[in-house]
Amino acid sequence: MTLSFFIYKLIIVLIVFVMTLVVAMYSTYGERKIAAFLQDRVGPDRAGPFGILQPLADGVKMFMKEEMIPSVSNKVLFIIGPGISMMTAFLTGVIIPWGKSLNIDGVEYPLQITDLNISILYLFGVLSIGVYGIMIGGWASNNKFSLLGAVRASSQMISYEVAMGLSVIALIMTTGTLSLGEIAAQQEGWHWNVVFQPLGCLIFIICAFAETNRAPFDLPECETELVGGYHTEYSSMKLGFFLFAEYINMFVSSAIISTFYFGGYNMPFIGRFVHDQNTLAILGFVFLFAKIIFGIFFFMWVRWTLPRFRYDQLMNLGWKTLIPLSILNLVLTGLWMMKDELMKMF
């Protein structure tokens, strides 16, 4: 590995890290503005022009608030919980292909931190670790409401990971790879996977809402029943980490949905008008980022439109509806792939 390649990887890691933080930070501002628009309000408009500095004001507020650790809590685990949530939120972004490779002086530089040939397995491995952050935080608080929120979150996330995994297996069957880089490259032109896997795409999106604990699946922090859910006892920047991790997960989920089903960095017909490799790479990043922004908007749109489920409804949807549908999708995908052999048999 050459020094220049190492420096390039370091630069792209820093760019993705900063981009994730900035997008998550301004997603809080965007959510307030979208909620205000849907509810015929103004939204934040005091901090800077149009309230554009509101996320900075929120950050300063979080850092300046008094740090409270309950005397009856497990202090070590109480501190570790928010850290695990933030760590897993960042780790999922390293496998996302942000565009085609750049060519600089004849050397190819991929716009991806790492292209694992088992990217999907890595993704689900990190997602499963994310449950521990919420569970540890809720249990370590030694608070009944926090523990109940943590139990809700862990059972919800584990339940919906089953349907999500089955929907992704159908995608793997059609693409023949576990690499996100290859999945994105295969969707050039109009060959988006949502065309071939519409049911799988719908199941994956619903499960993504449950995995990120977003409304109408926000039962773990249901303020009408559990005060604040698993982060009831948290204050200052530890609370900020939990809240920030949710927005980072929303950003990463939108990027993964775009890569899996909506072409990733590909846009139809762009290759007819642009032939320079570096220009195509930059445009691909712009197209992917636009899809991600729309995905984040969709998360917010649903939150401020649909009411919250009851917990029994949430679990029934996961186990009695989504899992049977994802199994049906697997069967239909297999039959479609074997249609030629079946036609010969009959």
3D architecture notes:
There is one protein chain. This protein is mostly helical. It has one domain (3-345). It has 14 helices and two strands; from the N terminus they run αααββααααααααααα. Strands 1-2 form a two-stranded antiparallel sheet. A hairpin with a 2-residue loop joins strand 1 (102-104) and strand 2. Helix 1 (3-38) crosses helix 10 (236-261) and helix 5 packs parallel to helix 13 (311-337). The radius of gyration is 21 Å and the shape is globular. 38% of the residues are buried.
Distance between the termini: 55 Å
Count helical runs.
Answer: 14
Query: Which class do the helix and strand fractions yield?
Result: mainly alpha
Overall pLDDT level = 90
Number of domains: 1
Q: Which features would summarize this protein structure in a list?
A:
single chain, 2% strand, 14 helices, 68% helix, globular, 346 residues, mainly alpha, two-stranded antiparallel ribbon
Question: In a nutshell, what does this entry contain?
Answer:
The chain has 14 helices and two strands, in the order H-H-H-E-E-H-H-H-H-H-H-H-H-H-H-H. The protein is mainly alpha-helical. A hairpin with a 2-residue loop joins strand 1 (102-104) and strand 2 (107-109).
Draw up the topology in text.
Blueprint: H1 3-38, H2 54-64, H3 75-91, E1 102-104, E2 107-109, H4 119-140, H5 144-175, H6 180-185, H7 193-196, H8 198-211, H9 223-226, H10 236-261, H11 270-273, H12 277-303, H13 311-337, H14 339-345
Antiparallel strand pairs: 1-2
